[in-house]
Amino acid sequence: MSKVLELPEVEIRERNWSDSLILQGDTRSIINELPNDFYSSCITSPPYWGKRDYGYDEQIGAEENLSEYIEHLVNIFRGVREKLKEDGTFWLNIGDSYTSGNRTWRAEDKKNPAREMSYRPRTPQGLKPKDLIGIPWRLAFALQADGWYLRSDIIWYKPNCQPESVKDRPTQSHEYIFLFSKSEDYYYDYENAKEPAAEKGKTRNKRSVWQVNTEPLPEAHFATFPEELIKPIIMASSKENDLVLDPFFGSGTVGVVCNKLNRKFHGIELKQDYIDIAERRLKNVR
Questions:
Q1: Secondary structure class of 180 (helix, strand, coil)
Q2: Separation of alpha carbons 221 and 208, rounded Å
Q3: What are phi and psi of 67, to 5 degrees?
């Protein structure tokens, strides 16, 4: 069972790090307190830029400038690199967005209340209204320049993607997952990650397009990581009893799948509502 650790009231260095834990607080502060060379993999999805208002000052994703958002994430994941084992991997899910046209707010969507926002970032310098920003690749290249090995871009194709009312472009039905490694040689169990082949009863090496439906979580009003998206990542990047890190834990899907696959996890989450959801989900894992 996971435990919530509230900071700074508890001295984090005295914890038993072999346990699964949810650490409550800002990942920018907590990441530096975690043990070095410790985790087999990091699997996470940070807040997307300009997509949500979580109600916190200086929240990740609410930066005025795109360059600040990318800089913040590069700094966080530089800290993650120190926490990974030398053969560890980092799996990053990140979505794209369009420029706001300098609109300063967004109205509530009845089908998705979480889309309501009291702020919208300005159009980045050099871009135009209605431009696709290209955030995933901008961030991936920044991480590569910071020292990560960029090993794969994976397309998460969502057959049940959220409908859009646009009539001048295709509906977005995919996001990216990037596989990074800390070193040139790293742990990757391709046998455990294999997928079914066309020939009955046969398997093949995992391809780079993954078709996985989203999984809405009604109590949180947003779509969570689908368990079937996370399962092959954990299978490929860790062994039983290994520790997996998620510095943006959210509703806890990485922890849920870790429990099901006999792995341990450390999740960092700021928002108490999400921690409550994660704790309930983890209690129901069998």
A1: strand
A2: 29
A3: -60, -35
Contact yes or no for 160/213 (Cβ under 8 A): yes
Query: Alpha-carbon distance 206 to 237, whole Å?
Result: 13
Distance CA 5, CA 22 (A): 6
- Nearest Cα to Cα of residue 270 among 255, 248, 252: 248
User: Quick one: tokens of 200?
Assistant: 């009955």
Domain ranges within the chain, ordered by starting residue: 4-283
Type of residue at 207: R
What would the DSSP string read from start to end of 91-113? EEEE---B--TT---BPPBTTBG
- pLDDT tens readout for residues 9-30: 445 556 689 999 999 999 999 9
Angle of helix 253-260 relative to helix 227-237, nearest 10 degrees, comes to 60
Fold of 4-283: Rossmann fold (3.40.50)
Altogether, the residues listed in the chain come to a count of 286
**Chain segment 47-89, per-residue pLDDT in tens:** 999 876 666 667 888 888 999 999 999 999 999 999 999 999 9
What H or E segment, with its residue span, contains residue 178? strand 174-181
On the question of a cis peptide bond just before residue 226, with omega within 30 degrees of 0, the verdict is: no
Task: Quote the tokens at residue 122.
Answer: 């300005």
Name, in order, each residue with C-beta under 8 angstroms of 263's C-beta and a sequence gap of 6 or more. Answer: 234, 238, 240, 241, 242, 243, 244
Q: Of 219, 78, 64, 66, which is closest to residue 138 (Cα–Cα)?
A: 66
For residue 50, the Cα-to-chain-centroid distance in whole angstroms is 16
Alpha-carbon span 213 to 252, nearest angstrom: 18
pTM of the model: 0.89
Q: What angle do CA 51, 55, 57 make, to 5 degrees?
A: 100
Q: Identify the DSSP state of 187.
A: -
Tokens of 105: 């707010």
Q: Is the Cβ–Cβ distance between 39 and 126 less than 8 Å?
A: no
Q: For residue 231, how many other CB atoms are within 10 A of its CB?
A: 16
